[in-house]
Design goal:
By secondary structure, the chain is an alpha/beta fold. Helix content is about 30%, strand content about 20%. The chain contains eight helices and ten strands. The strands form three sheets. A five-stranded parallel beta sheet has the order 2-1-6-5-8. The chain has a three-stranded mixed beta sheet with strand order 3-4-7. Strands 9-10 form a two-stranded antiparallel ribbon. α3 packs parallel to α5. The longest helix has 19 residues. It is elongated, with a radius of gyration of 22 Å. Bound molecules: adenine. The site of adenine has 13 residues, from β5.
């Protein structure tokens, strides 16, 4: 899989993509991630990427020229173009699973008051939000989306780690987990987990997952 990210702040990706699962997946060539400076496609002599909105109002709007220039240059026949924006549909595990199947994704990071609507109408396949709050730009959202996709690529997660039993599988949050020691400051690990009884452990985990989901995310239970 190839992922191209278009941003005014390429440095924001250096730390997050240099760590852990994403970095390992890149080294193993499971994913190729390239970061592009939007300003490189600015067409005027001052390399401007934004301007005031027509019709007035506060803030600045990303100009169409660098947006069209970058995406048209990077796009191929099988590219999915995503725009990170609080106006998008909210990102879910099911979306991460379907995006994992794409061969090429371009992620454009929005900024300021928004991006020129002509770019969205002509070149964006999907606007994605990571939640109902406003970030100062799409960069942290792009990092979240890339992380959620890349860890699903077969081979990205190491031996001993697993994609089974995860939160949102079967629309449930995760069950609680414990590790050694079996007693810590008088706090005991639930007896059933020490019993070695796999059937009972599975039942206990399912119950706990349902209980937790009902309490904090009842809308997940249909
Ligand atoms: N840009 C600003 N806020 C955002 C959000 N919640 N999700 C995605 N991109 C954004």
């Amino acid at each position: 899989m190839k992922i191209d990210i278009v941003t005014l702040f390429p440095e924001m990706f250096v730390g997050p993509f240099d760590q852990s699962i994403i970095s390992r997946a890149m080294k193993k060539k499971l994913v190729e991630i390239r970061i592009h400076q939007l300003r490189d496609w600015a067409t005027d002599k001052h390399h401007l990427t934004d301007d005031r909105p027509f019709g007035g109002g506060p803030g600045m709007v990303l100009k169409p020229e660098p947006l069209f220039g970058s995406v048209e240059r990077l796009k191929t026949e099988n590219t999915k173009v995503l725009l990170m924006s609080p106006q998008g549909s909210v990102f879910k595990q099911t979306k991460a699973q379907s995006l994992k199947e794409e061969s090429h994704i371009i992620i454009v990071c929005g900024r300021y008051e928004g991006v020129d609507q002509r770019f969205i109408d002509e070149l964006v396949d999907e606007e994605i939000s990571i939640g109902d709050y406003v970030l100062s730009g799409g960069e942290p959202a792009a990092i979240v989306v890339v992380d959620a996709i890349v860890r699903l690529i077969p081979g990205a997660i190491g031996k001993g780690e697993s994609l089974d039993n995860e939160s949102f599988n079967e629309n449930l949050l995760d069950f609680p987990v414990y590790t050694q020691p079996a007693e810590f400051r008088g706090l005991k690990v639930p007896e059933v987990l020490l019993s070695g009884h796999h059937g009972e452990i599975a039942r206990w985990r399912k119950n706990k997952a349902e209980e937790k989901t009902r309490k904090v995310r009842p809308e997940l239970i249909v």
